[in-house]
Amino acid sequence: MIRHIVFFSVPKGGDPDAVEAGLSMLTENPHATVLEIGRNTRTDLYDEGVDFVVYGEFEDEAALSAYREHPIYKKSTSVVKPLREMRMAADYDVDKALRHSRYKG
């Protein structure tokens, strides 16, 4: 499984509701097994640079590629890109990730 995490910021004086509306289109993309759009709750004491997070899970790299090629993704990008300031993305293979779990159940 591939996890896809993207952070966005909205410029000062920008329209976060319009960015959220543009990002929300992504939830209709059929290639993600999980797709969440969230506004930053701003609980980090040191950084307030992120306004939105997109979190997605994909069966494999092919599903992530299909997600990026889908017309919904392209439409969302065309809406959000001119409204956002920063975009940072990371993808990783869950099976290759280092992990520690405190859950003993």
List the helices and strands and how they pair.
Layout: E1 2-8, H1 16-24, E2 34-39, E3 52-58, H2 61-69, H3 71-80, E4 87-93
Antiparallel strand pairs: 1-3, 1-4, 2-3
Helix pairs in contact: 1-3
How would you explain this protein's 3D organization?
- The chain has helices at 16-24, 61-69, 71-80; strands at residues 2-8, 34-39, 52-58, 87-93.
- It is of the alpha+beta class and 105 residues long.
- The chain has a four-stranded antiparallel beta sheet with strand order 2-3-1-4.
- Helix 1 runs antiparallel to helix 3 (71-80).
- It is flat and about 45 Å long.
- 19% of the residues are buried.
- It comes from Martelella endophytica.
- Residues 2-92 form the Stress-response A/B barrel domain.
- This is Stress responsive protein.
Keywords:
single chain, 105 residues, alpha+beta, Alpha-Beta Plaits, 3 helices, 4 strands, Stress responsive protein, Dimeric_a/b-barrel, Dabb
Give the CA-based shape: flat
CATH architecture descriptor name: 2-Layer Sandwich
Look up the CATH topology: Alpha-Beta Plaits
Secondary-structure element pattern, one letter each: EHEEHHE
| Alpha plus pi helix count | 3
> How many distinct folded domains?
1
Determine the mean pLDDT.
94
Which strand order spans the largest sheet, edge to edge or round the barrel? 2-3-1-4
Estimated radius of gyration: 15 Å
**Number of DSSP-assigned strands:** 4
Query: Can you summarize the main beta sheet?
Result: 4 strands, antiparallel
Q: Level of helix content?
A: 25-40%
Low-confidence runs (pLDDT<50, min 5 residues)?
A: none
The CATH class turns out to be Alpha Beta
Structural class: alpha+beta
Euclidean distance between termini CA atoms? 22 Å
Percent of residues in beta strands: 25-35%
